[in-house]
Write a structure and sequence with these properties.
Blueprint: H1 6-21, E1 34-40, E2 47-53, H2 67-70, H3 89-99, H4 101-104, H5 147-154, H6 157-172, H7 176-190
Antiparallel strand pairs: 1-2
Domain Fcf2 pre-rRNA processing C-terminal: 72-159
GO molecular function: RNA binding
GO cellular component, one term: nucleolus
Length: 191
Amino acid sequence: MPDIVDGQVDKLLREAEQRLRGSSAPAPARSMPLVRVEVTALSVESSATVYKEQQLSVRKPQAQPTQKDTKNDTAGPNWFNLPKTDLTPDFKRDWQLLRMRGLLDPKHQKKALRSAPPEYSRVGQVIGGPADFYSARLTRKERKQTILEEVMGTLDSNKLKGKYAGIQRNKMSGKKAFYQRLVSQRRKRQN
C-alpha cells in the first residue's frame, strides 16, 4: 500500500463526504481539523481507523480579578466604610507634625504615634455647631489653612527658650564659670 500524505487523506475524506451527501459540487476547504479515532469492534479482531470531523474550541481563561477588586478600599461597614488613606505630601507633613508634637510643647506629655500613617483615615475640617458657646469658636483670624500654621500660631516660643535656658543652667552648675559668677554676685551684694 503506497504511503498517503496527510493532505491527500483530507482531500479524499472531503470527496467521500460529498458523495455520501449526494452533492456533486466540491466542498469548500474547511479550517476545522480532522481527528483520528480508532474504533475496535469486540467481535472482530481487526481495528478500523475512522476519521471524524471534530470542532475544536479554544477555551478562554477566566478574567482574573485585579488586586483592587479583591481588596476593599474601605475599612468595612463596622467602621462606617472609612476610606483608604490618600498619602498626599500635605498629609505626610501633617502626620509627621502630629508624631513630633511632643517636641513642640515639652510640658505636655503626649502618647507617641506610630511612624506609619494609618491605613484607613479621613482628613476633614471641624465645623463649630450652633450649640457651641460663642467663646469656644475660633475667629476668622485664628483659623488657619493647615495644621502646621495652627500649631505654629499657638506655639509659645518663650516656653521653649525658658526650658532650654533652665537645662543649660543646670548643666553649667558646679563648673568654674558658674562658681566665678556666683562669687561676683556675692561681692556686688556686699558693696
